Amino acid sequence: MNQPAVSPTLDTLFQRTLMRQPHAPALLDPLNKARVTGHQPRQMTYAEADTAIEALSAHFVESGLPANSVIAIQLPNTVEFVLTVLAAHRAGLVVAVLPLLWRHAELTAALNRTAARAIVTMSRVDGVNYSDLAMHAAAEAFSIRHVCGFGTDLPEGMASLDDVLARPPGTTRAVIQDGRKAAMISFDVTAEGFRPVPRPHFSLIAGGLAMSLEADVKQGATLMAAFTPMSFAGLASSLAVWLLSGGTLALHHPFENDVLEQQINEQDCEVLIAPAQLALRLGDADLAARMPTLRNVIGLWRAPEQVAASDAWIAPHAPLTDVYLFGEAGLFGARRGEDGMPVAVMPGPHGAPREQSGSSIAGEILLTPKGTLGLRGPMVPIAAYAPPQPVGETLTAQPPRDYVDTGYAARLDRPSGAICITAPPSGIMAVGGYRFLSNDLQEWARRLGQGALLTALPDRLSGHRLAGRAQDNARAREALSELGLNPLMVEAFRDRSGPV
Questions:
Q1: pLDDT single digits (tens) 70-127
Q2: CA 433, CA 431: separation in Å to the nearest integer?
Q3: CA torsion sign, 234 to 240 to 241 to 247?
Q4: Which residues form the AMP-dependent synthetase/ligase domain (predicted)?
Q5: What domains lie within the chain, and their CATH numbers?
Q6: Positive or negative, the Cα torsion across 189, 191, 192, 193?
Q7: pTM
């Protein structure tokens, strides 16, 4: 009897490399991890990582988490994040990634929307107490049954995963490894509001393939991932690209430029994956002399409308690949030519690599009737972005849509026929990857008191930055905290206009 073909999962890719080279280096922690989390940096081989994954997976099973249930993760860009994601998948769970900038209100909404059964966090990240934050959010999410954390001084009732890693693995369960099964849930903000976006394994792997093939990432390469992993792009660019290459994944918790440069040199990193504006800054600083081991740079653009006007890449020894990000809807990449300028992106199907004839189709780019950019392909979760049913027409079947409208304004360049992305979605702001409706600014400003000012200013690195002014800064911080804004955004609130 013939067995149906089953597409691989992330854990399948990990175990393939494990079987081939168990003692090869797999994961490298940030050099400044002690400052970020209080943990000492770790380096793990594939065999050591597998033992840790097995222990965490057994803990999830023994805790009574049913297969296919959702486990929420709010962790920094460290080894613990990678181990937890792979352990959850090995236990047959679906991972919901929660950005570190999220606070109580957003966490509670995400946990309730996904019916998450557990949450995993770190005791502290950059001085912020995330364990208390998780406990308070879990208290208002009726589906949460287990709260787990890495680090010391965990609140009462939170299970220590450091203790789990210190003892031998326990009970496991058989899980069918099928790439069509749900792997992750990320969260987007559209004109219709807050939106959970589920994805199967093959969609994540498709995103990783689109980047690794376009950038020509070599097998066995050492990758430096300096992009926050709490999104589809973050997981695809770090976890998926690493597992597809079968090499070593070095992690950097964004951003400390000196530490990043030191880590790239000490760990002989060949590929840098980072926000594009950061990559361009490094490229302008004599990259060949300062980081000679780099051979590829993958720059991720949270504001893809800025790519066409960006500066030339002047480090030919390490070509730059621009990756256009469209929230959680999807992405595509385009490697720059010898002149260092962004290449024209044509509508229609695009392969990976883009310029190679006969390459596999990574996706399709189209112009919608509304003059916006649409995406379709294996990485694009069309059902998650289905338009809402018109009021009063619940019994009327809507015409099927086989693409996602990203909301980014776009047009065709007449001489070349290339796609020109001209503006981000109307009514949506982004601060360092944290997306929110522009209407929310009015509510935040109202809470600051009379004479206060809060606005979003364009910023080339993060899309926008919040700037504000208030007579009573202590009250301003208190009001913003009550709305759930992270201290990383609040503490910089100043008398004069400055970034928040």
A1: 999 999 999 999 999 999 999 999 999 998 888 788 889 999 999 999 999 999 998 8
A2: 5
A3: positive
A4: 14-299
A5: 10-343 (3.40.50.12780), 361-380+404-425 (no CATH), 428-492 (3.30.300.30)
A6: positive
A7: 0.88
Contacts of 383 (CB under 8 A, 6+ apart): none
- Joined tokens for residue 365: 């780019």
Contact status, residue 402 vs residue 392, Cβ threshold 8 Å: no
- Return the sign of the alpha-carbon dihedral for residues 195, 199, 205, 209: negative
